[in-house]
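Backbone-to-sequence.
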């Protein structure tokens, strides 16, 4: 039975919706529907109402008309509709409620300047956004001007606003680069161990990946010289995950290699704002006068990963190619977010926020380090510290990794591992502290250490 009532929704729409729902829930392919005349009589409605409902169902492929026979549920419908029977049989995905999540790239919600951001957002919504025009595909010019000024003063990056592209997170930045250089080269050289997201994106474009080992001075220049690659990905200011910084002499040698080999370098400056022990190292791009460095940064670790804001600084040699290739997409960052960020930087709030965030996370960093050393002492080595939102540790005792992972889950601890390949020839643990309150860190590390100690091979 269908329930048709007097309301603002037309009767034929009510009938259409209810028949459609019945098809999805109950009726099988080939089931016959009542004739238009019978339906009109049964529900005391006009034949035009029934015809309109059937016509819409027919147009959408739910029903078919058979000459001299009437209307039937389409024979093909079962292959395409998510019937409720199958929905009921499938169980909802399991979710784990971890009590201690050591995610290495997460900020605590208290870190975000919510009231200030809301006030600035309201201001730009009222004053500065033209919702009647298409946005700039590279990101709003006024925002790119502010980013260019900031990068020049804080990182020594040489750029004009025309070179900057506002992207929707790091993976989006890598997607653009991989698309842009696919016709230039099909091979990417990358630090080893390194950031797997880069590999994942470039493999989607069928790039071959060449691992270049890391030594005490960063990426191995000797191995780069042997490489035939025309594209290199590096994290020179603070290598991920080892924390090594490439010294200035080697930076010049990297530039020289790229220039002599007509190659490009992707410089990922992923945590430059969060350096706790020293002044931030100037960007590799800033010493480049040969247009061979593609600079990329993100606001995920300093402002918010939820906003999905990153940026590229393209060499001028690639601007024309970018304009020719990317004729259709627009920046994935919403216009109101861009305008709010522009005002946030322009009015000086960004610099204040960075200082506050650096002080806060330095405290968390130090508490995490002290707690790890207190509870695990000579059983671990700190591989990476002094910046970002995590400390990377490696065991210096033999660990049963399966026991560690199992016991961590039992204690509702979420751990994040770094390993170089499927054989786990290199394995470390990222101990993220950004999502914790200061007072939560010692107890969280204590719980982790108990699990760690259980996993030590006897």
């Amino acid at each position: 039975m269908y329930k048709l009532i007097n309301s603002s929704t037309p009767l034929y729409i009510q009938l259409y919706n209810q028949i459609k729902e019945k098809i999805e829930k109950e009726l099988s392919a080939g089931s016959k529907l009542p004739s238009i005349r019978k339906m009109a009589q049964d529900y005391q409605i006009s034949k035009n109402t029934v015809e309109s409902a059937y016509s819409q169902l027919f147009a959408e492929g739910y029903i078919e008309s058979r000459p001299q026979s009437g209307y039937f549920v389409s024979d093909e419908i079962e292959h395409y509709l998510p019937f409720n029977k199958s929905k009921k049989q499938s169980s909802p995905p399991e979710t784990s409620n971890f009590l201690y999540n050591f995610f290495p790239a997460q900020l605590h919600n208290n870190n975000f300047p919510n009231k200030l951001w809301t006030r600035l957002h309201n201001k730009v919504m009222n004053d500065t956004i033209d919702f009647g025009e298409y946005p700039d595909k590279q990101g709003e010019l006024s925002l790119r001007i502010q980013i260019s000024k900031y990068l020049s003063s804080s990182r020594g990056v040489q750029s004009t606003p025309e070179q900057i592209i506002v992207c929707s997170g790091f993976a989006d930045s890598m997607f653009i680069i991989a698309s842009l250089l696919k016709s230039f080269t099909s091979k990417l050289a990358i630090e080893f161990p390194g950031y797997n997201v880069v590999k994942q994106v470039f493999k989607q474009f069928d790039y071959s990946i060449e691992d270049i080992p890391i030594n005490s001075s960063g990426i191995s220049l000797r191995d780069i010289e042997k490489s035939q690659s025309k594209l290199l990905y590096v994290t020179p200011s603070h290598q991920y995950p080892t924390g090594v910084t490439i010294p200035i002499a080697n930076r010049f040698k990297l530039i020289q290699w790229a220039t002599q080999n007509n190659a490009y370098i992707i410089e990922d400056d992923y945590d430059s704002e969060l350096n706790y022990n020293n002044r931030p190292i100037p960007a590799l791009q800033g010493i480049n006068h040969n247009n061979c460095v593609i600079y990329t940064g993100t606001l995920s670790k300093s402002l918010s990963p939820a906003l999905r804001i990153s940026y590229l600084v393209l060499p001028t040699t690639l601007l024309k190619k970018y304009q020719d290739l990317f004729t259709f997409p627009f920046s994935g960052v919403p216009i109101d977010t861009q305008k709010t960020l522009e005002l946030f930087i322009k009015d000086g709030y960004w610099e204040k926020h960075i200082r506050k965030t650096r002080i806060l996370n330095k405290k968390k960093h130090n508490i995490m380090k002290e707690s790890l050393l207190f509870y695990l002492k000579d059983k671990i080595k700190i591989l990476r510290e002094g910046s970002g939102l995590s400390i990377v540790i490696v065991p210096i005792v033999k660990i049963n990794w399966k026991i560690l992972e199992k016991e961590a889950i039992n204690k509702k601890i979420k751990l994040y591992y770094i390993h170089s390949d499927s054989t786990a020839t290199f394995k470390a643990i990222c101990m993220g502290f950004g999502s914790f309150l200061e007072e939560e860190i010692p107890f969280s590390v204590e719980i982790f250490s108990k699990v760690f100690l259980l996993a030590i091979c006897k």
